[in-house]
């Protein structure tokens, strides 16, 4: 069971409940654990683990489950820090679930983009210190999840035949990252590297991601989660009000801008995705992903 392997000191559900602590998973209507949440009883660090096989792609339900988990953790005043991780070997998050964009139902597409924007508000604007444990690929919206955290720890590529990659590859698919995601990239790695990365749709291997400041640290695969949890302890000890005020110095204007233009952003997304040309691109990309398998 995943929850039992997260940390030796982690409490199981029953134990945690008896101690008045939370160790929960949040479920969709089909009662499938898309996201698992655990709280280390010793350190108070929460870990939200994405658990949507095969690649943690962000469907409407997955976005909602992530938001629910963040809100649940935030509602516990004694918790100051959070690790975002994946239960899947080799994939942090494969980005938006492309099937959501394919021949979409308009109402669902609106809700889908709204729920993706909501993750940006909840994670990028979280009162918690947030650490991304990136033990696998993080393209596009997967990179957005990592960028929304305060600190990024990625699996090292050293000695790996197929290293994990991270970046915004949208242009390679013929689509464009929304401006708020583009600005997250620019704010993190600087204008020049972001222009190159966005224009060419670059997916960076870990060492390159470290060199341009897209991630903060590389560690061997088996250490990613424990190192992220240790970092979360460190961040959690910084006086919370000062830490949050500092975060907001850099992020508030961006968050406020999307809040003010949220509907416009959703309208633009819907009209872009439902366009015939975009549908052809999405159709072709879905086929290429399944051909890769065969
Ligand atoms: C105004 C317009 C706004 C646009 C919005 C901009 C914001 C964000 C854009 C996005 O996030 S678009 C998604 C971008 N993501 C990708 O390009 C990643 C695609 N996937 C991969 O490259 C690989 O799957 C992987 C992540 C490197 C993992 O490789 P692995 O070999 O482990 O797994 P696969 O065999 O490739 O895949 C398994 C299974 O999953 C399906 N799948 C993979 N990615 C997605 C996805 N993003 N959405 C939906 N489904 C996905 C893949 O087709 C396979 O399915 P089956 O063949 O097993 O049915």
Automatic annotation (TrEMBL):
Q: Gene3D superfamilies, from UniProt? A: 2-enoyl-CoA Hydratase, Chain A, domain 1, 6.10.250.170
Q: Which UniProt keywords apply?
A: Acetylation, Fatty acid metabolism, Isomerase, Lipid metabolism, Mitochondrion, Transit peptide
| Keyword Amino-acid biosynthesis (UniProt) | no
SUPFAM superfamilies, from UniProt?
A: ClpP/crotonase
Q: Which CDD domains match?
A: crotonase-like
Q: Record's superkingdom?
A: Eukaryota
UniProt-annotated location(s): Mitochondrion matrix
Q: Which GO terms describe its molecular function?
A: delta(3)-delta(2)-enoyl-CoA isomerase activity
Reactions accelerated catalytically: (2E)-tetradecenoyl-CoA = (3Z)-tetradecenoyl-CoA; (3Z)-octenoyl-CoA = (2E)-octenoyl-CoA; (3Z)-decenoyl-CoA = (2E)-decenoyl-CoA; (3Z)-dodecenoyl-CoA = (2E)-dodecenoyl-CoA
Q: Please indicate if the UniProt record lists Acetylation as a keyword.
A: yes
Q: Transmembrane stretches, by residue range?
A: none
- Cellular-component GO terms for this entry: mitochondrial matrix
Question: Example GO biological process term?
Answer: fatty acid beta-oxidation
Q: Which residues form a coiled coil?
A: none
From the UniProt record, give the pathway where this protein acts.
Answer: Lipid metabolism; fatty acid beta-oxidation
Pfam families listed in its UniProt record: ECH_1
Q: Which family does it belong to?
A: Belongs to the enoyl-CoA hydratase/isomerase family.
- PANTHER family linked to this entry: ENOYL-COA DELTA ISOMERASE 1, MITOCHONDRIAL, ENOYL-COA HYDRATASE-RELATED
Quaternary structure and interacting proteins, as annotated? Homotrimer.
**Cited function:** Key enzyme of fatty acid beta-oxidation. Able to isomerize both 3-cis (3Z) and 3-trans (3E) double bonds into the 2-trans (2E) form in a range of enoyl-CoA species, with a preference for (3Z)-enoyl-CoAs over (3E)-enoyl-CoAs. The catalytic efficiency of this enzyme is not affected by the fatty acyl chain length.
Under which name does UniProt file this protein?
Enoyl-CoA delta isomerase 1, mitochondrial
């Amino acid at each position: 069971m995943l929850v039992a392997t997260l940390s030796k000191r982690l409490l199981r559900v029953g134990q945690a409940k008896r101690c008045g602590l939370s160790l929960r998973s949040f479920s969709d209507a089909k009662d499938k654990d898309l996201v698992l949440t655990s709280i280390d009883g010793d350190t108070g660090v929460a870990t939200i683990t994405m658990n949507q096989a095969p690649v943690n792609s962000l469907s409407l339900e997955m976005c909602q489950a992530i938001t629910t988990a963040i809100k649940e953790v935030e509602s516990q005043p004694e918790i100051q820090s959070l690790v975002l991780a994946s239960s899947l070997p080799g994939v942090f998050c494969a980005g938006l679930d492309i099937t959501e964009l394919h021949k979409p139902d308009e109402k669902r597409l609106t809700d889908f983009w709204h729920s993706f924007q909501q993750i940006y508000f909840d994670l990028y604007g979280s009162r918690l210190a947030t650490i991304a444990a990136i033990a696998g690929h993080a393209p596009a919206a997967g990179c957005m999840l990592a960028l929304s955290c305060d600190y990024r720890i990625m699996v090292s590529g050293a000695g790996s035949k197929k290293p994990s990659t991270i970046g915004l590859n949208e242009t390679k698919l013929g689509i464009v990252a929304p401006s708020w995601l583009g600005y997250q990239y620019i704010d993190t790695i600087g204008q020049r590297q972001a222009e190159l990365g966005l224009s060419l749709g670059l997916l960076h291997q870990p060492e390159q991601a470290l060199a341009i400041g897209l991630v903060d640290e590389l560690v061997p695969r088996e250490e990613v989660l424990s190192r992220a949890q240790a970092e979360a302890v460190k961040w959690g000890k910084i006086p919370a009000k000062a830490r949050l005020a500092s975060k907001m110095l850099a992020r508030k204007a961006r968050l406020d801008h999307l809040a003010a233009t949220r509907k416009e952003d959703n309208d633009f997304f819907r009209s872009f995705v439902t366009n015939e040309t975009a549908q052809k691109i999405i159709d072709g990309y879905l086929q290429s992903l399944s051909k890769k398998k065969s």
